[in-house]
Amino acid sequence: MHATAKVFAAAAVILSAACAGPQSALMPAGRGAERIATLFWWMAAGAVVIWLIVFALGAYSTTRRGPHDERRARMLIIGGGALVPTVVLAGLLAYGLAMMPDLIREAPPGSMVIHVTGEQFWWRVRYPHAGGAVELANEIRLPAGRAVEFRVDSPDVIHAFWIPSLGGKIDMVPGRVNRLLLEPTRVGTYRGTCTEFCGMSHALMSFPVAVVEEREFEQWLEQQARPAQAPAEPIAARGATLFNAHGCNACHTIRGTAARGVIGPDLTHVGGRMSLGAGILPNDVDAFVRWIVETEKIKPGVHMPQFAMLPRHDVRAIAAYLDGLE
Ligand code: CUA
Predict the structure, then answer these.
(1) Number of neighbouring beta carbons within 10 Å of residue 323
(2) How many other CB atoms are found less than 10 A from the CB of residue 299?
(3) How confident is the model over 170-194, as a mean pLDDT?
(4) How far is the CA of 163 from the centre of ligand 1 (A)?
(5) Is 194 in the pocket of ligand 1 (CB under 6 A)?
(6) Best exposed site among 28, 61, 70, 222 by fewest CB in 10 Å?
(7) Over the range 48-75, which residues count as b (16 or more CB within 10 Å of their CB) and which as e?
(8) What is the three-class DSSP state of 129?
(9) Are 312 and 318 in contact (CB under 8 A)?
(10) Residue 119 pLDDT
């Protein structure tokens, strides 16, 4: 293969790989995302056709010999420069606008409502539950095939909530509640993220999104609504005592214990989540230790102070306790 061809082939592979993955609007797993992807492909196809025509005309004009025909040249400029773009753009605009009512429509009656608050730099998530709302953090689970209305807000700065695989995005503005309807259609694990610059760690607030079958979802929500399980291992029991002794309870809630702080994420079932620190660390004991002692290094500008001054065996015990909260 010629060197240039090899470069183009490699670029095509890399670029097409970037279209896949858990955070791709071009691999839709929700109704809104399907419409948006369809619109994108029509636009892309239209752009390719116009690009080919322009290049063909360019090639023709550079290879043609002989005098120019004034009348034909003027017709080409009026036709290609004004008429065709007007028709094509008007067509695409009409096609895009016709799609909008479906993308921004009201939630059907009986839809589940999930509240999400954008914090610096994590996500507070509240699910409706028979026993009152259940507060979780940095993870969203949804039943496949059911319409869900997200009501989003923020206490201080503007964030934007976007799960590209499921649908469009929406701003989280302090002082108002915005609504977004999403309808996941395909079971799988996706990724949501913040798409409005909100401070130093704007790029470090994402969240896993699991779309599961209805039954599995109901079981999960029941489990999340329960209070925290008592620590099993002696080291975890020591961690539970230290958690309150070192003041972690001032900011965090662990339902069923004396920890009732509301500033930071609810940690009742933190050990069972798919990630730590809002989508940036794996969920294991070592990651908990790192998070506790290097908080500001891992997530600059975060409101949680780091506890590097604590004895390392105390941090390990707290990490063991939190990791066990499934
Ligand atoms: Cu939150 Cu950017």
Answers:
(1) 21
(2) 23
(3) 96
(4) 13
(5) yes
(6) 70
(7) eeeeeeeeeeeeeeeeeeeeeeeeeeee
(8) coil
(9) no
(10) 96
How far, in Å, from the CA of 199 to the mean position of ligand 1?
Answer: 7
How many distinct helices (H) and strands (E) make up the chain? 9, 10
Residue range 194-235, pLDDT digits in tens: 999 999 999 999 999 999 999 999 999 999 999 999 998 999
Rg (CA), the chain: 26
Sole residue written with tokens 């400029």: 77
Q: Which residue has the higher pLDDT, 76 or 3?
A: 76
Note the pLDDT tens digit of each residue in 254-307. 999 999 999 999 999 999 999 999 999 999 999 999 999 999 999 999 999 999
Q: Give the Å distance between the CA of 303 and the centre of ligand 1.
A: 14
Contacts of 29 (CB under 8 A, 6+ apart): 165, 166, 184, 185, 186, 188, 190, 211
Query: Residue 1 has what pLDDT?
Result: 54
From atom 1 of ligand 1, which residue's Cα is the shortest distance away? 159
Each residue of 40-67: pLDDT tens digit? 998 898 889 889 988 998 898 888 887 8
The residue among 224, 217, 150 whose CA lies nearest residue 187 is: 217
Give the Å distance between the CA of 206 and the centre of ligand 1.
9
**Cβ–ligand 1 contact at 202 (below 6 Å):** yes
Q: Which of 7-21, 34-48, 134-148 has the lowest mean pLDDT?
A: 7-21
Q: Ligand 1: does its nearest atom lie under 6 Å from the Cβ of 36?
A: no
Q: Is 181 in the pocket of ligand 1 (CB under 6 A)?
A: no
Lookup: tokens for 300:
């600059």
Report which ligand 1 atom has the smallest distance to the Cα of 197.
Answer: 2
Q: What is the pLDDT of residue 96?
A: 87
- Please give the share of the chain, as a percent, with pLDDT higher than 70: 94
Q: Can you list the pairs that 249-256 forms with residues at least 24 positions away whose Cβ atoms lie under 8 Å?
A: 251/304, 253/135, 254/228, 254/325, 255/226, 255/227, 255/228, 256/226, 256/227, 256/228
